[in-house]
Amino acid sequence: MTDTKKDANAMWGGRFAAGPDAIMEAINASIGYDQRLAQQDITGSRAHAAMLAAQGIISDKDAEAIREGLLTVLSEIENGDFAFSTALEDIHMNVEARLKELIGEPAGRLHTARSRNDQVATDFRLWVRDQVDAAIEGLDALIRAFLDQAEAGADWVMPGFTHLQTAQPVTWGHHMMAYVEMFARDKSRFEDARRRMNESPLGAAALAGTGFDIDRHMTAEALGFDRPMANSLDAVSDRDHALEFLSCATICALHLSRFSEELVIWSSAQFRFVTLSDRFSTGSSIMPQKKNPDAAELIRAKIGRIMGAMVALFTVMKGLPLAYSKDMQEDKEQVFDAADNLMLSLAAMTGMVSDLTANRDALAAAASSGFSTATDLADWLVRELGLPFRDAHHVTGSLVALAEDKGCDLPDLSLDDLRSVHDAITEDVFNVLTVDASVASRTSYGGTAPVRVREQTAAWREKLS
Ligand code: ARG
User: Catalytic activity annotated for this protein (predicted)?
Assistant: First the structure.
């Protein structure tokens, strides 16, 4: 290019008499963050160049020079030898400008039948797809860690809570398997989103397609996409894939946050249900006795920024007319930050769960406090004495009040005590008042009985193998 005016942009400055104001450059440039797309940008450009040559749009010789030169650019970037320029705005123009320095004139042919609009849509989709794969892998490891815990403690009893008040005894394995279910749903959400996002925008050009005889199926296949996107306007303006990624990430972060909260409660001196490993705890600089669940607290908080990113991008995208608008450049930082923090949270949670020690004695002691077998008593009155459930509920309530008065738990009441409230009660009732009997009796599908838990752990083990 010989006619570029001094200071005007080397890539698009033909009609400009002057270069941009420094403030304009600052608000316009994305190179500070979109350099993370370098590998995807170069992979996309290499596929595009090969296709242009295969279609006879550029020569094989030029395509070869472009493809080789792009590999040199990539290695410069990966080795930290690349000087990113704000004047060149973004990763796409930085790469192309460097290619021009390296190989000269053929570099100018790369952008034939392409626009930065389909280029960035392609790069970003490839990047998000990689993150989806990383999330699936991270979830897989986390699910296995929960499964290990569930298998080890399929029959350990603990209190089950509603309203964080003792409700009914459950098994440790059952509680762990609840998270296996949640994180498996998260994984399937990412898998589902991946199928939908796996279409190629490349070749949509600026918005309307191109008059060149390109082969979009060829580039789609080279980039591992299932097919090209069917509508060029949609291809350059759609960010659903990023919105879906952030939505899946937000639900996953929510599940991570809930278990984090349980870990914070459970590891307190008042509960002592679990001990976190030293590897995933921190100390206090003033209180020597402290062992803090910082990782759990931070993961509990991460949903703030992940959901924030989701809300931010939804807000950016709403009301945008077709096709591309520069607003869409605001998609990247949100997704980068959310992805980084999701992956870190998954890894930290997997570490914590793998290292976690359940304190069986504390769990068992808590399980048998708080009249946790009251429902079992009411069920016994229904089954053995034929009482309507509402009456049984009332009788049991009176017995709980009696036990509370006496400062004991339900199994500690004498038969006379029990008969003082309902005279048909027999010795037999004591069989259902222990927590082990309680959990063993809950054999309905999906219930907490150890036999059911073991069926579930075996089924998941099989599914994951
Ligand atoms: N940096 C831009 C982005 O991220 C690339 C696309 C620019 N397209 C344009 N027509 N100015 O969105």
Answer: 2-(N(omega)-L-arginino)succinate = fumarate + L-arginine
